[in-house]
Amino acid sequence: MIERGIKLDNVAFTALISGLCRDGNVTQAERTLREMLKEGLKRDDATYTMVIDGFCKLRNGQLKNANMLLDAMLNLGVVPDDITYNILLEGHCKHGNSEDFDKLRSEKGLVLDYASYTSLVNKTLKDRQNR
Asked: Considering its fold, how many domains does the chain have in total?
């Protein structure tokens, strides 16, 4: 965008990232997030969560990228909320990696909430049906 002479603000960048994620173009959304950093714009937990959610929803579930983005978020001092962690949990459960999320939960000291337990119960029920 910048190459074209268009200067975006936080709202425009966030809308662009949201649209890219909705269209499944999560890699470009992540690049756009990095572009926000170069421009010195503030990224909040909601912006990161959109991209994390995008990675979790991909068919191949790019959970490694989602986890790396969470780490980057934390390293920059952006505090994730319950929604961010529940999206990660849902992604890990969907792609059969709830143990990996449990490790992440332990490392980060996360406390599960109602939505977290709902994801875990759904995963357990799905596993039982697949037996």
From this structure: 1
Residues 50 and 87: beta-carbon distance below 8 Å: no
8: left (phi over 0), alpha (psi -120 to 50) or beta: beta
Q: What is the pTM of this model?
A: 0.80
Integer Cα distance of 83 and 36 in angstroms: 22
Residue 19 CA, distance from chain mean position: 15
Domain range for 114 is 2-129
Q: Residue 86 is encoded by which pair of tokens?
A: 């529940």
Tens digit of pLDDT for each residue in 41-70?
988 999 999 999 999 988 777 888 998 999
